[in-house]
Amino acid sequence: MERTERPQPLPLLLFLLAAGGLSWAVYQASGVRLLAAFWVAVLLGMALFHAKFGFASGFRRFLLTGESRLLRAHFLLFALAGLLFFPFLVQGEAFGQPVQGFVVPVGLALLVGAFLFGVGMQLGDGCASGTLYHTGSGDTRGILVLLGFMVGSLLGVFHLPFWQALPAWAPGSALTWFPSPYLGLALWLGLLG
Fold first, then answer.
1. Which CA distances in Å does 50 have to 7, 13, 83, 100?
2. How far apart are CA 77 and CA 159, in angstroms?
3. How many angstroms separate the Cα of 85 from the Cα of each of 80, 82, 100, 101, 176?
4. What sections of the chain are H helices per DSSP?
5. Which residues cross the membrane (predicted)?
6. Which residue, 43, 48, 102, 143, is the most exposed by fewest CB within 10 angstroms?
7. Burial category of 146 from C-beta neighbours within 10 Å (exposed 0-12, middle 13-18, buried 19 and up)
């Protein structure tokens, strides 16, 4: 029988105090609806953390060993998210709130950003979700990477108009490219399947 590690009391206490404090702040600022969304996010994060479900690890394992189990799990997750969210995108609202996709054009800014993202992933040993995962696991090196994210984001705000003015194709999505949005959904699922 495999032994499981018991939770360490201090990190667990700090987590509970932080979650309680954040819950109170979220409730005071936005009420019960956002508080419920906050706890759904906390519980999903805990589930993914304990399942060791990282985005970069699946791709890394596939490229290094050829083992694709985690990569297939990612594709399944994308397909399920698409299936569950697609009706809301087509409808344009969910539970009385407007819903639309965040569509950005493919252009020079995206290519430069993708390159910088790759360099940052190599230097920081992971993407944002991986860094949060490692930091939450107690790896303090991730704190420096998080500080780098904050500084980089702040710098990006100051010259965002420059990047938005660079040449790019017109933005578009599967909802508008095909005669029926469901044809776009079928193509999406076919690519993932």
1. 12, 18, 25, 32
2. 34
3. 8, 5, 10, 10, 16
4. 9-30, 32-50, 55-65, 69-91, 108-124, 128-136, 141-158, 160-164, 174-177, 181-192
5. 35-59, 71-90, 102-121, 142-162, 174-192
6. 102
7. middle
Ordered per-residue pLDDT tens for the chain, 193 residues: 556 667 677 877 888 898 899 999 999 998 898 899 999 988 887 777 777 766 777 777 888 899 888 888 888 888 888 788 888 888 888 888 898 878 888 899 999 999 998 888 888 877 887 787 777 777 778 888 888 888 988 998 999 999 999 999 888 776 777 777 777 777 777 776 6
Q: Which of 153, 133, 151, 155 is nearest to 142 (CA)?
A: 133
Alpha carbon distances (Å) from 111 to 56, 106, 116: 19, 8, 9
d(CA 150, CA 158): 13
Tokens 């980089």, residue located:
152
